[in-house]
Known about the structure:
Blueprint: H1 9-107
Amino acid sequence: PKDGDVPTENERLGAKIKVFASSLQIKNLEVEKLKGDLQQARAQHVVEIYHAKTTNEKLEEELQQLKNQNEKNKQAMMKLVHAVKEQRETLKFVRKEKEMMQRETLHL
Length: 108
């Protein structure tokens, strides 16, 4: 239409359709950006889950090693306690033997 002419119904609808199409293209670009953001967030989440999982596995392995070492330490401690008891018994026996020898020596 020329300046000053009143646009026809079809021209008005055509202009509205162009505006709507432009708006739709902008919305589509926003949707694509959001899809990309979501995909990136998902990928980051997968990486974080993998990292947490491997860290957890390492910690569980370390915990098991510590439990095993703790068990070995307990067994070694029990052996030491047993050895100390045996030494005490031996020491008591030696003292008694020494006392008896001293008595026999005194009686001679």
